[in-house]
Amino acid sequence: MAKLVPPHGSDVLKPLLLPEAQRKAEFDKAAKLKKVPMTTRETSDLIMMGIGAFTPLDGFMGYADWKGICDHYQMPSKNNLFWPIPITLSATKELADSIALNEEVALWDTETDAIMGTMKVTEKYTIDKAHECQQVFRTTDKEHPGVQKVMEQAEFNLAGPVKVLSESYYPEMFADIYQRPEESRKIFEERGWSTVAALQLRNPMHNSHAYLAWIAIEVCDGVYIHQLVGKLKPGDIPAEVRVKAIDALVNNYFRKERVLQGGYPMEMRYAGPREALLHAVFRQNYGCSHLIVGRDHAGVGDYYGPFDAQRIFNEIPIGSLLLQPLAMDWTFYCYECGTMASMKTCPHESKAVIDEEGNYKGGARLLLSGTLLRKLMSEGKPVPKEFSKPEVIKILNEYYDTLEEKVEVKLHKFATGGDQKK
Ligand SMILES: [Zn+2]
User: Fold this and answer.
1) What angle, 0 to 180 degrees and rounded to 10, lies between the N-to-C axes of helices 390-402 and 370-378?
2) CA 368 / ligand 1 centre spacing (Å)
3) pTM (two decimals)
4) How many CB atoms lie within 10 A of CB 101?
């Protein structure tokens, strides 16, 4: 039988979530330990370690790994194994000073006021935050949401092995799609898949995403539609609505046995190319042999070139990852080609014009922006069927109808095409 790609740097997954039977005793112990508050990013990283998505990490990283990763994508503590973004835990100087080396501490999620795990503190250190930001985000601009979080984190880092005690609200709140890597791997194996392409999603799935998924299925055994669950910006579509819309698309336009839908709990850093590499590492852990990397993957604003996240896979040392990127260009429906197409295939450069009533007014490439789409839907206007299947629009419309206060979405100058930022 063909086999799935192994986890990153390990023959087996290394979930750090303590077995259920041992958790109560550890919780009791944790109640007496000093509490280290975690930011939402740190909490989400801890859960990723808990479920084995960050295999082969043992806990929050020390200085040598922090530096090795920033400068060379390498973890000295693990034979210089490839890793793209430091996974660290911050603490104030006061708190760090109060903790002795080898002392155990409780890891505290301040958002839910829950103890999420314990850590044996083996190292306390400070970092050059600007250096981390420049290396990871390619900028130190404080307007960048990922940079902002690093610059705002407390001045010390604490490192050490962790025991994870909770996956927070994810397993209950996203019961239909929340998956741990061992679960996705089991399903892939049951289906007899060996090559699986992950499709990263954090917005509703429209025809352009479906097109990527169809292409992936042509070249792999199946596609794993893997979406971000958790915190949202105002105006974003909640995960349960996105899940329903994906189901509608998959049930009507895909061979169901070739598609699996799943959700993962990591917070976005918007680190563009480096984040694409982190997405690749944890997708490999989920059992995926390929990751679809589109235009401006995991980017924000204008910080990254549209294909930086594809190019970086050629810039890292050979053999860093077993997973391979499936680099895809910007995709759309073309009225001249009469089909879905991409910048790589379609020779018609004019943009299709859709007016504010949702009517096609001419031109070729339909690059409907999320902004215009939300405006059309929130006003009950027709969305071009070439952009999105009616089943998907129906579900999104039902969601907008339930909103008591519709989100005011303003059109901006790129709304008919230029703005495809996710
Ligand atoms: Zn065309």
Assistant:
1) 60
2) 15
3) 0.91
4) 10
Q: Which two tokens stand for residue 119?
A: 């850590």
For the stretch 282-325, pLDDT in tens is: 999 999 999 999 888 888 888 999 899 999 999 999 999 999 99
Catalytic residues: 202-203
Q: What is the 3-state secondary structure (H, E, C) of the chain?
A: CCCCCCCCCCCCCCCCECCHHHHHHHHHHHCCCEEEEECHHHHHHHHHHHCCCCCCCCEECCHHHHHHHHHHCEEHHHCCEECCCCCCEEECHHHHHHCCCCCEEEEEECCCCEEEEEEECCEEEECCHHHHHHHHHCCCCCCCHHHHHHHHCCCEEEEEEEEECCCCCHHHHCCCCECCHHHHHHHHHHCCCCCEEEEEECCCCCHHHHHHHHHHHHHCCEEEEEEECCCCCCCCCCHHHHHHHHHHHHHHHCCHHHEEEEEECCCCCCCCHHHHHHHHHHHHHCCCCEEEECCCCCCCCCCCCCCHHHHHHHHCCCCCCCCEEEECCCEEEECCCCEEEECCCCCCCCECCECCCCCECCCCEECCCHHHHHHHHHCCCCCCCCCCCHHHHHHHHHHHHHCCCCCCCCCCCCCCCCCCCC
Q: How far is CA 306 from CA 145, 148, 330, in A?
A: 18, 22, 9
CA gyration radius, the chain: 22
Reported as a single tens digit per residue, the pLDDT across 340-374 is 999 999 999 999 999 888 899 999 999 877 677 87
Residue 21, Cβ neighbours under 10 Å: how many?
7
Helix axes 129-137, 145-152, angle to 10 degrees: 160
> In angstroms, what is the span from residue 33 Cα to ligand 1's centroid?
63
- What is the Å distance from ligand 1's center to 364 Cα? 6
Residues 43 and 211: beta-carbon distance below 8 Å: no
237 CA from centroid of ligand 1 (Å): 30
- The pair phi, psi for residue 211, each rounded to 5°, is -60, -45
Residue 345 C-beta-side C-alpha neighbours within 13 Å: 15
